[in-house]
Amino acid sequence: MIFFPFFILFSISTDPISQSGYYTIETKANSPIDVSLSHGKYDCVFIWSHTKDNDAEITVKAGEKSKSFELKGETTAIVKGDETSIKVNSDTTIHVWVIENNVCDMNSLLYTTPNYAKDTFKIKPDIKNLCIFFGSHNNQSKISLSSTSSEKSSSSKITVHSIDKQSQTFDSLKSKTFNSHFFTQIANPASEYDLEFEISGNEPGDAFCSVVPIHMVLVDKEYEEEVIESNSIQCNKEAKENNSFLPFMLAIVAIVAIIIIAGVLHLTGYFKKIRSYFRGEIINDGPAKVEIDPKELLRMDEIDGLDIEDEEEPKPEVEEKEN
After folding, report:
1. Which of 229, 235, 169 is nearest to 204 (CA)?
2. What is the CA 52 to chain-centroid distance, rounded?
3. C-alpha distances in angstroms, 290 versus 120, 268, 287, 293, 299?
4. pLDDT over 70 at 291, yes or no
5. Which residues does UniProt assign to the signal peptide (predicted)?
6. Residue 222: beta bridge partners?
7. CA 180, 184, 185, 188 torsion: positive or negative?
8. Which of 9, 25, 78, 243 has the fewest CB atoms within 10 Å of its CB?
């Protein structure tokens, strides 16, 4: 079982980090952060904020070799070697994980959000181990993580590495709350997962979230492995709640409409007629009642001998009088 201590460092230059754990470092522009990896016993994961003026330079040493790499457009990297250092070209905060070298490999992901992220993702085949890190200044969070596919689900295990508890292994995570920084490791992962990550205590802001593969830096090369085959990420929790509320409202409207229609059919007697029809009964509502005005009828003996042609009566001639 692994236990990670937590450190916060606020200084322009610090002594090299030499113990496993989680570190948050406020650093000045181009001020290096040095990390001793105990001759390869540990790996180091750097997480930093990235803007157009926030590129990083990482130096890694292994044996007699040493090489520096410029990382532009990146926000995170995992370094393997004997020792390493990072410097960023602007004032920023750098989060550092120093972990055992057999915990995470080249297949790792970083989720970044100030408030909320929900993702359904499918990973590439043949991945045997997957680590998921979270870039957040706040250490109070809640996570749900579970497989949505049957492949490997019985043998897949999720291990949570936290800075205040020993490592814990689960089949899945359901609204698991943490009061400290953590990352997850999935051994023998399934092909598809649902992830929901929520940070508590932060002020609501613009809905932003992202997921990126973690860059790999070795003494002889740096590269990035594509981990996700496809995904659908959502950054707004309100949209999730609204989407779940809409089917509920539609169901209520449908039920009310059915009740109203049933009441109308009952009052008009249609239910009785429908039942009789399906039972094969003849529906007899009695003889038709027709009201006739007797004044508008002629007796048959009064119309005998009448000529149906209408003849005009001759008009009397009028004699003209002479004046």
Report:
1. 235
2. 28
3. 70, 22, 9, 10, 18
4. no
5. 1-20
6. 217
7. positive
8. 243
Identify whether the C-beta of residue 70 lies closer than 8 Å to the C-beta of residue 57. yes
Which residues contact residue 29 at a Cβ distance below 8 angstroms, ignoring those fewer than 6 apart?
88, 89, 90, 91
Three-state secondary-structure class, residue 12: coil
DSSP 295: G
pLDDT in tens, 233-288: 999 887 554 444 556 677 787 787 788 877 766 667 665 666 666 665 555 555 55
- 134-145 pLDDT, tens digit each: 987 777 899 999
What values do phi and psi take at 137, rounded to 5?
Answer: -80, -25
Query: Does the pLDDT value for residue 28 go beyond 60?
Result: yes
- Look up the pTM and report it: 0.71
Determine the Cα–Cα distance for residues 214 and 107; give it in Å rounded to an integer. 8
- Count the Cβ atoms, other than its own, within 10 Å of residue 16: 12
Q: Decide: 35 and 74 in contact? Cβ < 8 Å.
A: no
Residues 6+ apart with CB under 8 A from 314: none
Q: How far apart are CA 307 and CA 284, in angstroms?
A: 43
Q: Is residue 66's pLDDT more than 90?
A: yes
Q: Which helix (H) or strand (E) holds 266?
A: helix 237-267
Amino acid at 11: S
The pLDDT of residue 132: 98
User: What residue has token string 């940070």?
Assistant: 199
Nearest residue to 128 via CA among 106, 161, 100: 106
Please report where in the chains the tokens 């020993």 appear, as a residue: 166
Residue 290: pLDDT over 80: no
